[in-house]
From TrEMBL:
<comment type="similarity">
    <text>Belongs to the ABC transporter superfamily.</text>
</comment>
<dbReference type="InterPro" id="IPR003593">
    <property type="entry name" value="AAA+_ATPase"/>
</dbReference>
<dbReference type="InterPro" id="IPR017871">
    <property type="entry name" value="ABC_transporter-like_CS"/>
</dbReference>
<dbReference type="Pfam" id="PF00005">
    <property type="entry name" value="ABC_tran"/>
</dbReference>
<keyword id="KW-1003">Cell membrane</keyword>
<keyword id="KW-0472">Membrane</keyword>
<dbReference type="InterPro" id="IPR050095">
    <property type="entry name" value="ECF_ABC_transporter_ATP-bd"/>
</dbReference>
<dbReference type="InterPro" id="IPR027417">
    <property type="entry name" value="P-loop_NTPase"/>
</dbReference>
<keyword id="KW-0547">Nucleotide-binding</keyword>
<feature type="domain" description="ABC transporter">
    <location>
        <begin position="3"/>
        <end position="246"/>
    </location>
</feature>
<dbReference type="InterPro" id="IPR003439">
    <property type="entry name" value="ABC_transporter-like_ATP-bd"/>
</dbReference>
<keyword id="KW-0813">Transport</keyword>
<dbReference type="InterPro" id="IPR015856">
    <property type="entry name" value="ABC_transpr_CbiO/EcfA_su"/>
</dbReference>
<keyword id="KW-1278">Translocase</keyword>
<keyword id="KW-0067">ATP-binding</keyword>
<protein>
    <submittedName>
        <fullName>Energy-coupling factor transporter ATPase</fullName>
    </submittedName>
</protein>
Length: 300
């Protein structure tokens, strides 16, 4: 497992009497090399959960196992700097954290802080830019003169430049146009499949990720309400409403199509293209069956 949480709770507290438990008894497993989606209504504990993955927050109860590092509530934590290089955390609107006058300097910042030479950092920057589908000529540009989509990709490249085993992204498609959103999700899936990275994406646009994610974790009121595959989620979409989430359009379409054509026993299809092909196939099958019946009647 890339990440394993056992009975993990987290409580925010200050020196006054104020306390708020954000997570309650979470048991969560995320496989190495998988693409995992995390969803939940506002205040469900998503952001708190992400910060446990690289030690920004430490559990107040339970154990967090990330790769070969174990963090247990009430015990002295191991050195977390190496873990933070292996677990790249991309916050929502990561471009707001860019501050250098060139894209290259911004992407090199992380590797240089982790002890890489300038030439090594530049090589990592070039590879990360390529991984994100960006023209290397942009390295010399001011990051604030890039398009919104380019800036978002460059910000993610600054995390990839540290070559993390796990990449955790909080709403990576927020504010992007539909074309840029689809392109970014496709790039992240490719990083997962081709490079074997573990990719974890928090999203409220489940439609974008549903066809690609290997597994989902849904949070409700700081508790884990669901963990399973998209196919399992499609079999019981009402769980989304119970978690305060909107049922994705692709699931609504599948429900309508499976009811209309009697496909309830089949594996759910979660893309418009797959649904269209299946509907066309069903109509063709029915047309052929009707033709066969008419031919049989004509011989009687």
């Amino acid at each position: 497992m890339a990440i394993q949480l056992q009975q993990v709770s987290y409580t925010y507290a200050d020196r006054s009497m104020w306390r708020q438990t954000a997570l309650h008894g979470i048991n969560l497993n995320i496989a190495k090399g998988s693409l995992t989606g995390i969803a939940g209504a506002t205040g469900s504990g998503k952001s708190t959960l992400l910060q446990l993955f690289n030690g920004i927050l430490k559990p107040t109860e339970g154990t967090v196992q990330v790769l070969d590092v174990t963090i247990t509530a009430g015990e002295k934590s191991p050195k977390l700097l190496p873990l933070r290089r292996r677990v790249g955390l991309v916050f929502q609107f990561p471009e707001q954290q860019m501050f250098e006058d060139t894209v290259e300097k911004d992407i090199c910042f992380g590797p240089l802080n982790f002890g890489f030479t300038l030439e090594e950092a530049k090589e990592r920057a070039r590879k990360a830019m390529t991984d994100m589908g960006l023209d290397l000529a942009l390295l010399e540009r001011n990051p604030f003169r890039l398009s919104g989509g380019q800036m978002r990709k460059a910000a993610i490249a600054s995390v990839l430049a540290m070559d993390p085993d796990i990449v955790v992204l909080d709403e990576p498609t927020a504010t992007l146009d539909p074309v840029s959103r689809a392109e970014l999700i496709a790039l992240l899936e490719r990083l997962c499949r081709e490079q074997g990275r573990t990719i974890i994406i928090v999203t409220h646009r489940m439609d974008e990720l549903l066809p690609y994610a290997d597994s989902w974790a849904l949070l409700k009121g700081g508790e884990l309400a669901f963990q399973g595959s998209g196919q399992e989620l499609a079999a019981d979409p009402a769980i989304l409403e119970r978690c305060g989430l909107t049922i994705p359009q692709s699931l609504r379409y599948w429900q309508a199509v499976s009811t209309r054509f009697g496909l309830g026993t089949e594996k759910p299809l979660l893309t418009a293209e797959a649904l269209a092909e299946r509907i066309a196939a069903v109509l063709e099958e029915r047309k052929n069956a009707a033709g066969t019946e008419e031919m049989g009647s004509g011989h009687e």
